[in-house]
From TrEMBL, chain A:
Region (Disordered) residue spans: 67-88
Protein name stated in the entry: Biotin carboxyl carrier protein of acetyl-CoA carboxylase
Gene this chain is encoded by: accB
Keywords carried by this UniProt record: Biotin, Fatty acid biosynthesis, Fatty acid metabolism, Ligase, Lipid biosynthesis, Lipid metabolism
Xref: PROSITE patterns: BIOTINYL_LIPOYL
TrEMBL record, chain B:
Protein name as it appears in the record: Bifunctional ligase/repressor BirA
Gene that encodes it: birA
Chain's role: Acts both as a biotin--[acetyl-CoA-carboxylase] ligase and a repressor.
Native organism: Terrihalobacillus insolitus
Enzymatic reactions: biotin + L-lysyl-[protein] + ATP = N(6)-biotinyl-L-lysyl-[protein] + AMP + diphosphate + H(+)
Homology family: Belongs to the biotin--protein ligase family.
MF terms (GO), sorted A to Z: ATP binding; biotin--[biotin carboxyl-carrier protein] ligase activity; DNA binding; transferase activity
Top class in the EC scheme: ligase
Protein backbone atom coordinates (compact mmCIF):
# COMPACT_ATOMS: atom_id res chain seq x y z
CA UNK A 1 0.00 0.00 0.00
CA UNK A 2 1.12 3.55 -0.69
CA UNK A 3 2.35 5.62 2.20
CA UNK A 4 0.89 9.08 2.81
CA UNK A 5 4.29 10.48 1.95
CA UNK A 6 4.23 8.72 -1.42
CA UNK A 7 0.75 9.99 -2.17
CA UNK A 8 1.86 13.52 -1.39
CA UNK A 9 4.80 13.10 -3.69
CA UNK A 10 2.48 11.88 -6.43
CA UNK A 11 0.13 14.80 -5.98
CA UNK A 12 3.01 17.19 -6.19
CA UNK A 13 4.30 15.63 -9.37
CA UNK A 14 0.88 15.56 -10.96
CA UNK A 15 0.20 19.10 -9.80
CA UNK A 16 3.26 20.28 -11.62
CA UNK A 17 2.57 18.23 -14.70
CA UNK A 18 0.13 18.64 -17.54
CA UNK A 19 -1.63 15.40 -16.60
CA UNK A 20 -5.30 15.85 -15.86
CA UNK A 21 -6.09 12.45 -14.61
CA UNK A 22 -4.06 9.72 -12.96
CA UNK A 23 -4.85 6.33 -11.51
CA UNK A 24 -2.70 3.65 -9.97
CA UNK A 25 -3.59 0.17 -8.83
CA UNK A 26 -1.60 -2.40 -6.87
CA UNK A 27 -2.42 -5.23 -4.48
CA UNK A 28 -6.06 -4.27 -4.15
CA UNK A 29 -5.27 -0.62 -3.50
CA UNK A 30 -6.41 1.94 -6.02
CA UNK A 31 -5.50 5.58 -6.11
CA UNK A 32 -7.01 7.93 -8.64
CA UNK A 33 -6.56 11.64 -8.99
CA UNK A 34 -8.32 14.14 -11.19
CA UNK A 35 -7.71 17.82 -11.76
CA UNK A 36 -10.56 20.22 -12.31
CA UNK A 37 -8.77 22.58 -14.55
CA UNK A 38 -10.75 25.79 -14.56
CA UNK A 39 -10.88 26.09 -10.83
CA UNK A 40 -7.45 24.70 -10.34
CA UNK A 41 -5.56 27.77 -11.33
CA UNK A 42 -7.77 30.17 -9.48
CA UNK A 43 -6.57 30.16 -5.98
CA UNK A 44 -4.80 28.36 -3.29
CA UNK A 45 -6.66 28.11 -0.06
CA UNK A 46 -4.37 27.19 2.76
CA UNK A 47 -6.94 24.93 4.31
CA UNK A 48 -4.61 22.12 4.89
CA UNK A 49 -1.78 22.87 7.16
CA UNK A 50 -0.10 19.57 6.45
CA UNK A 51 2.13 20.86 3.74
CA UNK A 52 2.93 24.11 2.12
CA UNK A 53 2.67 23.07 -1.48
CA UNK A 54 -0.55 21.21 -1.06
CA UNK A 55 -3.44 23.03 -2.61
CA UNK A 56 -5.82 20.26 -1.66
CA UNK A 57 -6.72 17.96 1.08
CA UNK A 58 -6.00 14.34 0.64
CA UNK A 59 -7.77 11.65 2.46
CA UNK A 60 -6.74 8.05 2.34
CA UNK A 61 -9.48 5.81 3.50
CA UNK A 62 -9.23 2.16 4.32
CA UNK A 63 -12.83 1.48 3.37
CA UNK A 64 -13.59 0.18 -0.12
CA UNK A 65 -14.41 2.89 -2.62
CA UNK A 66 -14.08 5.77 -0.28
CA UNK A 67 -14.03 9.11 -2.01
CA UNK A 68 -12.75 12.24 -0.49
CA UNK A 69 -14.90 15.05 -1.79
CA UNK A 70 -13.83 18.55 -1.14
CA UNK A 71 -15.53 21.88 -1.38
CA UNK A 72 -16.00 23.00 -4.95
CA UNK A 73 -14.55 26.39 -4.32
CA UNK A 74 -11.09 24.94 -4.04
CA UNK A 75 -9.11 22.98 -6.50
CA UNK A 76 -10.13 19.39 -6.10
CA UNK A 77 -8.25 16.20 -6.38
CA UNK A 78 -9.69 12.92 -5.48
CA UNK A 79 -7.87 10.12 -3.87
CA UNK A 80 -9.71 6.93 -3.91
CA UNK A 81 -8.58 3.80 -2.29
CA UNK A 82 -10.01 0.36 -2.38
CA UNK A 83 -8.58 -2.39 -0.32
CA UNK A 84 -10.23 -5.78 -0.46
CA UNK A 85 -8.73 -6.91 2.75
CA UNK A 86 -6.02 -5.37 4.80
CA UNK A 87 -6.03 -8.12 7.35
CA UNK A 88 -2.91 -9.73 5.90
CA UNK A 89 0.75 -8.94 5.81
CA UNK A 90 2.17 -11.67 3.60
CA UNK A 91 1.29 -12.92 0.15
CA UNK A 92 2.35 -16.32 -1.14
CA UNK A 93 3.16 -15.83 -4.80
CA UNK A 94 3.75 -18.26 -7.64
CA UNK A 95 7.41 -18.75 -8.56
CA UNK A 96 6.48 -19.79 -12.10
CA UNK A 97 3.84 -19.94 -14.81
CA UNK A 98 1.71 -23.05 -14.47
CA UNK A 99 -1.44 -24.72 -13.23
CA UNK A 100 -2.49 -24.19 -9.62
CA UNK A 101 -3.47 -27.35 -7.76
CA UNK A 102 -5.09 -26.93 -4.36
CA UNK A 103 -4.77 -30.62 -3.44
CA UNK A 104 -2.15 -33.36 -3.93
CA UNK A 105 -4.50 -35.55 -5.99
CA UNK A 106 -7.88 -34.80 -7.59
CA UNK A 107 -9.73 -36.79 -4.91
CA UNK A 108 -7.98 -35.54 -1.80
CA UNK A 109 -8.70 -32.60 0.48
CA UNK A 110 -7.06 -29.25 -0.21
CA UNK A 111 -3.65 -28.62 1.34
CA UNK A 112 -5.06 -25.56 3.13
CA UNK A 113 -8.27 -23.62 3.39
CA UNK A 114 -9.27 -20.13 4.42
CA UNK A 115 -8.95 -19.70 8.15
CA UNK A 116 -6.42 -22.49 8.51
CA UNK A 117 -3.19 -22.07 10.45
CA UNK A 118 0.02 -22.74 8.57
CA UNK A 119 3.66 -23.11 9.48
CA UNK A 120 6.44 -21.71 7.34
CA UNK A 121 7.16 -25.16 5.90
CA UNK A 122 3.50 -26.14 5.35
CA UNK A 123 2.79 -27.03 1.74
CA UNK A 124 -0.08 -24.81 0.63
CA UNK A 125 -0.46 -25.82 -3.01
CA UNK A 126 1.27 -27.21 -6.08
CA UNK A 127 2.05 -25.24 -9.22
CA UNK A 128 2.75 -27.47 -12.20
CA UNK A 129 4.30 -26.68 -15.55
CA UNK A 130 5.57 -29.23 -18.08
CA UNK A 131 5.13 -32.00 -15.51
CA UNK A 132 7.33 -30.29 -12.98
CA UNK A 133 5.41 -30.15 -9.73
CA UNK A 134 6.43 -27.32 -7.47
CA UNK A 135 5.26 -27.67 -3.90
CA UNK A 136 4.78 -24.18 -2.56
CA UNK A 137 5.42 -23.59 1.14
CA UNK A 138 3.82 -20.85 3.24
CA UNK A 139 7.22 -19.37 4.21
CA UNK A 140 5.66 -17.74 7.29
CA UNK A 141 3.79 -18.97 10.34
CA UNK A 142 0.27 -17.63 10.39
CA UNK A 143 -3.28 -17.95 9.17
CA UNK A 144 -4.57 -18.17 5.63
CA UNK A 145 -6.99 -15.25 5.36
CA UNK A 146 -7.70 -15.52 1.67
CA UNK A 147 -7.30 -18.07 -1.13
CA UNK A 148 -6.95 -16.03 -4.31
CA UNK A 149 -7.04 -18.72 -7.02
CA UNK A 150 -9.10 -21.77 -7.77
CA UNK A 151 -8.02 -25.34 -8.36
CA UNK A 152 -6.95 -25.82 -11.97
CA UNK A 153 -6.47 -22.13 -12.67
CA UNK A 154 -3.51 -20.98 -14.76
CA UNK A 155 -1.27 -18.71 -12.71
CA UNK A 156 1.42 -16.28 -13.82
CA UNK A 157 4.91 -15.76 -12.50
CA UNK A 158 4.68 -13.66 -9.33
CA UNK A 159 0.90 -13.89 -9.08
CA UNK A 160 -0.39 -13.83 -5.48
CA UNK A 161 -1.97 -17.17 -4.52
CA UNK A 162 -2.76 -16.78 -0.82
CA UNK A 163 -2.92 -13.99 1.73
CA UNK A 164 -1.52 -14.77 5.13
CA UNK A 165 -1.78 -12.98 8.45
CA UNK A 166 1.50 -13.85 10.03
CA UNK A 167 2.01 -14.51 13.70
CA UNK B 1 36.45 -47.62 1.34
CA UNK B 2 34.10 -47.39 -1.61
CA UNK B 3 36.52 -45.38 -3.66
CA UNK B 4 39.23 -47.99 -3.09
CA UNK B 5 36.82 -50.63 -4.33
CA UNK B 6 36.05 -48.53 -7.40
CA UNK B 7 39.75 -48.09 -8.07
CA UNK B 8 40.19 -51.85 -7.73
CA UNK B 9 37.45 -52.48 -10.27
CA UNK B 10 38.96 -49.90 -12.60
CA UNK B 11 42.35 -51.59 -12.40
CA UNK B 12 40.89 -54.99 -13.15
CA UNK B 13 38.71 -53.53 -15.93
CA UNK B 14 41.72 -52.01 -17.68
CA UNK B 15 43.40 -55.40 -17.69
CA UNK B 16 40.39 -57.57 -18.18
CA UNK B 17 42.06 -59.93 -20.66
CA UNK B 18 45.06 -60.32 -18.43
CA UNK B 19 45.90 -61.12 -14.84
CA UNK B 20 46.98 -58.45 -12.39
CA UNK B 21 49.18 -59.59 -9.54
CA UNK B 22 48.15 -59.08 -5.95
CA UNK B 23 51.38 -57.25 -5.37
CA UNK B 24 50.69 -54.85 -8.21
CA UNK B 25 47.15 -54.17 -6.94
CA UNK B 26 48.48 -53.69 -3.43
CA UNK B 27 51.06 -51.20 -4.70
CA UNK B 28 48.71 -49.20 -6.91
CA UNK B 29 45.93 -48.99 -4.34
CA UNK B 30 48.34 -48.43 -1.52
CA UNK B 31 46.70 -51.08 0.66
CA UNK B 32 47.91 -54.45 1.97
CA UNK B 33 47.44 -57.65 -0.02
CA UNK B 34 45.04 -58.86 2.69
CA UNK B 35 42.98 -55.72 2.19
CA UNK B 36 42.92 -56.34 -1.58
CA UNK B 37 41.64 -59.83 -0.95
CA UNK B 38 38.92 -58.51 1.42
CA UNK B 39 37.73 -56.02 -1.18
CA UNK B 40 37.50 -58.82 -3.71
CA UNK B 41 35.30 -60.85 -1.39
CA UNK B 42 33.00 -57.83 -1.12
CA UNK B 43 32.92 -57.45 -4.90
CA UNK B 44 31.88 -61.07 -5.22
CA UNK B 45 28.89 -60.26 -3.04
CA UNK B 46 27.92 -57.67 -5.64
CA UNK B 47 28.01 -60.33 -8.33
CA UNK B 48 31.53 -59.99 -9.71
CA UNK B 49 33.34 -63.22 -10.47
CA UNK B 50 37.05 -62.85 -9.89
CA UNK B 51 39.43 -65.59 -10.86
CA UNK B 52 42.56 -65.98 -8.78
CA UNK B 53 45.47 -67.92 -10.25
CA UNK B 54 48.58 -68.38 -8.23
CA UNK B 55 51.70 -66.67 -9.52
CA UNK B 56 49.58 -64.80 -12.11
CA UNK B 57 47.14 -62.79 -10.07
CA UNK B 58 43.54 -61.79 -10.47
CA UNK B 59 41.14 -61.33 -13.36
CA UNK B 60 37.47 -60.37 -13.59
CA UNK B 61 35.63 -63.16 -15.39
CA UNK B 62 32.08 -61.96 -14.96
CA UNK B 63 30.48 -58.60 -14.44
CA UNK B 64 27.43 -58.42 -12.29
CA UNK B 65 24.05 -57.86 -13.80
CA UNK B 66 22.43 -56.99 -10.52
CA UNK B 67 22.28 -53.38 -9.46
CA UNK B 68 24.15 -51.94 -6.52
CA UNK B 69 25.99 -48.68 -5.89
CA UNK B 70 29.24 -50.48 -6.76
CA UNK B 71 28.07 -52.05 -9.98
CA UNK B 72 26.56 -48.78 -11.21
CA UNK B 73 29.59 -46.72 -10.26
CA UNK B 74 31.97 -49.16 -11.84
CA UNK B 75 32.55 -47.85 -15.33
CA UNK B 76 30.57 -44.68 -14.70
CA UNK B 77 32.77 -41.83 -15.83
CA UNK B 78 31.03 -38.77 -14.51
CA UNK B 79 32.11 -35.77 -12.47
CA UNK B 80 29.18 -35.31 -10.11
CA UNK B 81 26.20 -37.42 -11.03
CA UNK B 82 25.98 -40.78 -9.28
CA UNK B 83 28.84 -40.09 -6.90
CA UNK B 84 26.34 -41.02 -4.23
CA UNK B 85 23.97 -43.87 -5.09
CA UNK B 86 21.29 -45.36 -2.89
CA UNK B 87 20.00 -48.71 -4.11
CA UNK B 88 17.04 -50.64 -2.71
CA UNK B 89 15.59 -53.92 -3.85
CA UNK B 90 12.05 -52.80 -3.19
CA UNK B 91 10.63 -49.38 -2.40
CA UNK B 92 7.21 -47.79 -2.56
CA UNK B 93 8.63 -45.07 -4.80
CA UNK B 94 12.15 -43.77 -5.43
CA UNK B 95 10.65 -40.26 -5.49
CA UNK B 96 9.56 -40.54 -1.86
CA UNK B 97 13.04 -41.60 -0.72
CA UNK B 98 14.82 -39.03 -2.88
CA UNK B 99 12.57 -36.21 -1.66
CA UNK B 100 13.29 -37.19 1.91
CA UNK B 101 17.04 -37.35 1.29
CA UNK B 102 16.93 -34.00 -0.47
CA UNK B 103 15.15 -32.42 2.50
CA UNK B 104 17.92 -33.84 4.69
CA UNK B 105 20.53 -32.21 2.47
CA UNK B 106 21.48 -34.89 -0.08
CA UNK B 107 24.06 -33.56 -2.48
CA UNK B 108 23.57 -32.52 -6.12
CA UNK B 109 23.70 -35.61 -8.30
CA UNK B 110 22.55 -38.14 -5.70
CA UNK B 111 20.78 -41.14 -7.26
CA UNK B 112 18.09 -43.32 -5.73
CA UNK B 113 17.45 -46.52 -7.64
CA UNK B 114 15.25 -49.54 -7.00
CA UNK B 115 14.78 -52.98 -8.52
CA UNK B 116 11.07 -52.73 -7.88
CA UNK B 117 8.58 -50.03 -6.94
CA UNK B 118 5.35 -51.02 -5.27
CA UNK B 119 3.78 -47.58 -5.55
CA UNK B 120 5.54 -45.89 -8.45
CA UNK B 121 3.73 -42.73 -9.32
CA UNK B 122 3.10 -40.58 -12.34
CA UNK B 123 1.33 -37.31 -12.93
CA UNK B 124 -1.19 -36.49 -10.16
CA UNK B 125 -0.21 -39.65 -8.29
CA UNK B 126 -1.35 -41.96 -11.07
CA UNK B 127 0.22 -45.39 -10.57
CA UNK B 128 3.21 -46.43 -12.63
CA UNK B 129 3.73 -50.16 -12.99
CA UNK B 130 7.37 -50.91 -12.12
CA UNK B 131 8.10 -54.63 -12.28
CA UNK B 132 11.04 -56.17 -10.46
CA UNK B 133 14.30 -56.08 -12.36
CA UNK B 134 12.60 -55.25 -15.65
CA UNK B 135 13.12 -51.55 -15.85
CA UNK B 136 14.98 -48.53 -14.62
CA UNK B 137 13.25 -46.91 -11.70
CA UNK B 138 15.33 -44.06 -10.41
CA UNK B 139 15.33 -40.54 -9.04
CA UNK B 140 18.00 -37.88 -9.34
CA UNK B 141 18.46 -35.13 -6.75
CA UNK B 142 19.56 -31.82 -8.30
CA UNK B 143 20.34 -28.46 -6.79
CA UNK B 144 20.44 -26.24 -9.85
CA UNK B 145 21.56 -22.67 -9.55
CA UNK B 146 18.80 -21.15 -11.65
CA UNK B 147 15.52 -19.29 -11.31
CA UNK B 148 12.59 -21.57 -10.41
CA UNK B 149 10.54 -20.46 -13.40
CA UNK B 150 13.08 -22.06 -15.75
CA UNK B 151 13.17 -25.39 -13.92
CA UNK B 152 10.41 -27.02 -16.03
CA UNK B 153 12.94 -27.02 -18.86
CA UNK B 154 14.83 -29.72 -16.94
CA UNK B 155 12.01 -32.14 -17.63
CA UNK B 156 12.32 -31.58 -21.39
CA UNK B 157 16.09 -31.88 -21.07
CA UNK B 158 15.66 -35.25 -19.37
CA UNK B 159 13.32 -36.40 -22.12
CA UNK B 160 15.97 -35.62 -24.74
CA UNK B 161 18.61 -37.51 -22.74
CA UNK B 162 16.39 -40.61 -22.59
CA UNK B 163 15.47 -40.30 -26.26
CA UNK B 164 19.10 -40.03 -27.34
CA UNK B 165 20.09 -42.99 -25.16
CA UNK B 166 17.34 -45.16 -26.63
CA UNK B 167 18.15 -43.98 -30.16
CA UNK B 168 21.95 -44.19 -30.10
CA UNK B 169 22.61 -46.96 -27.59
CA UNK B 170 19.58 -49.19 -28.01
CA UNK B 171 19.15 -48.51 -31.70
CA UNK B 172 15.47 -47.69 -31.98
CA UNK B 173 14.17 -44.23 -32.64
CA UNK B 174 11.73 -43.00 -29.99
CA UNK B 175 9.40 -40.01 -29.99
CA UNK B 176 8.76 -37.48 -27.26
CA UNK B 177 5.20 -36.56 -26.44
CA UNK B 178 5.09 -33.09 -24.93
CA UNK B 179 6.40 -32.44 -22.45
CA UNK B 180 8.36 -35.57 -21.62
CA UNK B 181 6.77 -38.95 -22.31
CA UNK B 182 8.85 -41.34 -24.38
CA UNK B 183 7.08 -43.43 -26.99
CA UNK B 184 8.38 -46.19 -29.23
CA UNK B 185 6.25 -47.14 -32.21
CA UNK B 186 3.31 -45.25 -30.71
CA UNK B 187 3.39 -46.90 -27.28
CA UNK B 188 4.57 -45.42 -24.03
CA UNK B 189 7.99 -46.67 -22.94
CA UNK B 190 9.22 -44.15 -20.40
CA UNK B 191 7.94 -41.34 -18.24
CA UNK B 192 9.42 -38.53 -16.21
CA UNK B 193 8.02 -36.87 -13.12
CA UNK B 194 9.75 -33.90 -11.56
CA UNK B 195 9.19 -32.41 -8.15
CA UNK B 196 10.67 -29.19 -6.86
CA UNK B 197 11.03 -27.28 -3.64
CA UNK B 198 11.69 -23.64 -4.36
CA UNK B 199 11.33 -20.17 -3.03
CA UNK B 200 10.45 -17.24 -5.25
CA UNK B 201 13.97 -16.75 -6.56
CA UNK B 202 15.90 -19.83 -5.47
CA UNK B 203 15.59 -23.56 -5.97
CA UNK B 204 16.21 -25.67 -2.90
CA UNK B 205 16.14 -28.92 -4.81
CA UNK B 206 14.66 -30.73 -7.76
CA UNK B 207 13.93 -34.46 -7.74
CA UNK B 208 13.74 -35.94 -11.21
CA UNK B 209 11.95 -39.27 -11.37
CA UNK B 210 12.59 -41.52 -14.34
CA UNK B 211 10.77 -44.74 -15.18
CA UNK B 212 11.80 -46.77 -18.23
CA UNK B 213 10.32 -50.06 -19.34
CA UNK B 214 13.40 -51.94 -20.49
CA UNK B 215 13.12 -55.72 -20.40
CA UNK B 216 9.43 -56.47 -19.93
CA UNK B 217 7.98 -59.13 -22.18
CA UNK B 218 4.42 -58.64 -23.26
CA UNK B 219 3.12 -60.83 -20.43
CA UNK B 220 4.95 -58.67 -17.86
CA UNK B 221 2.78 -55.70 -18.79
CA UNK B 222 -0.71 -55.63 -17.27
CA UNK B 223 -3.27 -56.67 -19.94
CA UNK B 224 -5.16 -53.38 -19.79
CA UNK B 225 -1.95 -51.50 -20.64
CA UNK B 226 -0.66 -53.72 -23.49
CA UNK B 227 -2.24 -51.66 -26.23
CA UNK B 228 -0.67 -48.43 -24.96
CA UNK B 229 2.57 -49.45 -23.22
CA UNK B 230 5.67 -51.28 -24.38
CA UNK B 231 9.29 -51.92 -23.40
CA UNK B 232 12.56 -51.38 -25.22
CA UNK B 233 13.01 -55.16 -25.38
CA UNK B 234 9.68 -55.66 -27.14
CA UNK B 235 10.58 -53.03 -29.71
CA UNK B 236 14.17 -54.16 -30.31
CA UNK B 237 13.84 -57.93 -29.70
CA UNK B 238 16.80 -57.73 -27.42
CA UNK B 239 17.47 -57.88 -23.68
CA UNK B 240 19.30 -54.84 -22.30
CA UNK B 241 21.83 -54.64 -19.49
CA UNK B 242 20.22 -52.35 -16.92
CA UNK B 243 23.54 -51.37 -15.38
CA UNK B 244 25.00 -50.23 -18.67
CA UNK B 245 21.78 -48.52 -19.67
CA UNK B 246 21.77 -46.55 -16.42
CA UNK B 247 25.39 -45.54 -16.95
CA UNK B 248 24.57 -44.29 -20.46
CA UNK B 249 21.68 -42.24 -19.12
CA UNK B 250 23.66 -40.77 -16.23
CA UNK B 251 26.66 -39.76 -18.28
CA UNK B 252 24.41 -38.42 -21.05
CA UNK B 253 22.48 -36.45 -18.47
CA UNK B 254 25.57 -34.89 -16.99
CA UNK B 255 26.86 -33.71 -20.37
CA UNK B 256 23.48 -32.34 -21.42
CA UNK B 257 22.84 -30.64 -18.08
CA UNK B 258 26.19 -28.90 -18.10
CA UNK B 259 25.71 -27.76 -21.67
CA UNK B 260 22.28 -26.40 -20.77
CA UNK B 261 23.50 -24.57 -17.67
CA UNK B 262 26.26 -22.95 -19.71
CA UNK B 263 24.41 -22.25 -22.96
CA UNK B 264 20.68 -22.25 -22.29
CA UNK B 265 17.74 -24.09 -23.77
CA UNK B 266 18.26 -23.61 -27.52
CA UNK B 267 20.15 -26.88 -28.06
CA UNK B 268 17.60 -28.85 -26.00
CA UNK B 269 14.77 -27.32 -28.02
CA UNK B 270 16.44 -28.45 -31.22
CA UNK B 271 16.96 -32.01 -30.00
CA UNK B 272 13.48 -32.13 -28.52
CA UNK B 273 11.87 -31.08 -31.78
CA UNK B 274 13.90 -33.70 -33.65
CA UNK B 275 12.11 -36.35 -31.58
CA UNK B 276 8.89 -34.37 -31.04
CA UNK B 277 5.81 -36.50 -31.62
CA UNK B 278 3.01 -35.43 -33.96
CA UNK B 279 4.37 -31.98 -34.70
CA UNK B 280 2.12 -30.45 -37.37
CA UNK B 281 -0.69 -32.88 -36.62
CA UNK B 282 -4.09 -32.33 -35.07
CA UNK B 283 -4.35 -33.76 -31.58
CA UNK B 284 -6.73 -33.64 -28.64
CA UNK B 285 -5.50 -31.49 -25.79
CA UNK B 286 -6.92 -31.64 -22.31
CA UNK B 287 -6.54 -29.17 -19.47
CA UNK B 288 -8.47 -29.12 -16.21
CA UNK B 289 -10.91 -26.67 -17.79
CA UNK B 290 -11.50 -28.08 -21.25
CA UNK B 291 -10.69 -30.58 -23.97
CA UNK B 292 -10.28 -29.52 -27.57
CA UNK B 293 -8.72 -30.31 -30.93
CA UNK B 294 -5.69 -28.37 -32.01
CA UNK B 295 -2.53 -28.53 -34.14
CA UNK B 296 0.90 -28.89 -32.51
CA UNK B 297 3.31 -26.33 -33.96
CA UNK B 298 6.35 -27.19 -31.83
CA UNK B 299 7.81 -25.87 -28.61
CA UNK B 300 8.65 -22.31 -27.62
CA UNK B 301 12.04 -20.92 -26.60
CA UNK B 302 11.16 -21.76 -22.99
CA UNK B 303 9.81 -25.27 -23.65
CA UNK B 304 6.09 -24.43 -23.63
CA UNK B 305 3.91 -26.25 -26.16
CA UNK B 306 2.97 -24.16 -29.18
CA UNK B 307 -0.44 -24.88 -30.65
CA UNK B 308 -2.30 -23.32 -33.54
CA UNK B 309 -5.93 -22.56 -32.80
CA UNK B 310 -8.68 -22.64 -35.43
CA UNK B 311 -8.53 -18.87 -35.83
CA UNK B 312 -4.87 -19.18 -36.80
CA UNK B 313 -3.46 -17.77 -33.57
CA UNK B 314 -0.53 -19.56 -32.00
CA UNK B 315 -0.92 -20.17 -28.27
CA UNK B 316 1.52 -21.30 -25.61
CA UNK B 317 0.55 -24.04 -23.17
CA UNK B 318 2.43 -24.64 -19.95
CA UNK B 319 0.36 -27.45 -18.62
CA UNK B 320 -1.88 -29.78 -20.51
CA UNK B 321 -2.25 -33.43 -21.39
CA UNK B 322 -2.07 -34.48 -25.03
CA UNK B 323 -4.25 -37.45 -25.80
CA UNK B 324 -3.96 -40.08 -28.49
Amino acid sequence: MLKVQEIRELIKLIDESSIDEFSYESNGTKVSMKKEKESFQVEEVPKSSRSTYEPVQVEVDEKPVATAEKSKSVATQEVEETAASTNYDHEIVSPMVGTFYSSPTPDSDPFVQKGEKVKSNSVVCIVEAMKLFNEIEAEVNGEIVEVLVENGELVEYGQPLFRVKSE
Amino acid sequence: MESTRNDLIELLEKNKDDYVSGQELSRQLNISRTAVWKHMKELEKDGYMIEAVSRKGYRITQFPSKLSPNTIQWGLHTNWIGKKIIHREQVDSTQIIANQLAREGAEHGTIVIADEQTAGKGRMSRPWHSAKGKGIWMSIVLRPNMMPQHAPQLTLLTATVLAECIDHYMGVRPSIKWPNDIFIHGKKTAGILTEMQAEQDRIQYVVLGIGINVNQDEHDIPPELRSIATSVKQETNQEWDLRESIQHILSGFEVSYEHYMANGFAHIKQTWEKYGYRIGETVTVETLQRTWQTVIVGIAEDGALLIKEEDGNVDKLYSAEIQW
